[in-house]
Amino acid sequence: MAGMKIGVIGSGTAATDLPAHLRELASGEVEPRIVNPRLSAFAATPYERLIVDLGYVDAAQAAAGDGCDALFINSTADYGIDAMRAAVGIPVVGAGEAALQGGGRDGRRFAIITVWPASMRFLYDERLRACGLEPQCVSIRHLSDEDELARLGADDGVMARMHRGERAVVARLAAMCEDAVREDGAECIVLGCTCMAPIGPAIAGACFVPVIESSRAGFL
User: Fold this and answer.
1) pTM attached to this predicted model
2) By CB neighbour count within 10 A (0-12 exposed, 13-18 middle, 19+ buried), where does 219 fall?
């Protein structure tokens, strides 16, 4: 008997393949399929975010028409989630929504730790408002300076370094998590991009509070 077909919209990186951690979670009951939007951009500004939203909704309609039983938005920003739910007649789960709800479960205070610069905070503010979790988010901490955006796709860019599992990146992010706990009162950490999935387990292993990696949280 074939498993439930889950359309995974977006790889969480510049790649076009299903992420390795999601392939590992596949089973006889669940069959994830990567769905790459025809229209794409990097959502560094609200204008580009609109382009990405449109691309994701278009991809959702194509996936639903191709026989997917449910859709998973593999982005912490949950691109196009409301329009997507209005456009297709199958369940839609967003990685960001799932992770934030997990972070704030039972009134827990949480912090968001992201690799992206402060100029992209608008993505997290929107998701927190939509999920009604602004009061429980004690801080949003950003690893990179603004010049990181000029290194997108480069070998020395943060996404490539995370994919390689560089210890220095893991150590810096773990230290940020510790600061959020000690200085901000966070009781849980939410990692702010599905591109952080390759090092999510390593960060969790270095922290003494729960760490939620949004791609796994949403898919599971």
Assistant:
1) 0.93
2) buried
CB 162, CB 151: distance < 8 Å = no
**In contact, 175 and 165? CB cutoff 8 Å:** no
Gap between the Cα atoms of 97 and 129, Å rounded: 11
The answer to whether the beta carbons of residues 11 and 17 sit under 8 Å apart is: yes
Phi/psi at 6 (nearest 5 deg)? -105, 115
Length in residues, the chain: 220
pLDDT in tens, 71-102: 999 999 999 999 999 999 999 999 999 999 99
Please name the residues in contact with 113: beta carbons below 8 A apart, sequence gap of 6 or more: 141, 143, 173, 176, 177, 180, 189, 190, 191, 192
Q: Rounded distance, CA 166 to CA 158, Å?
A: 10
The sign one gets for the Cα dihedral 140, 143, 145, 149 is negative
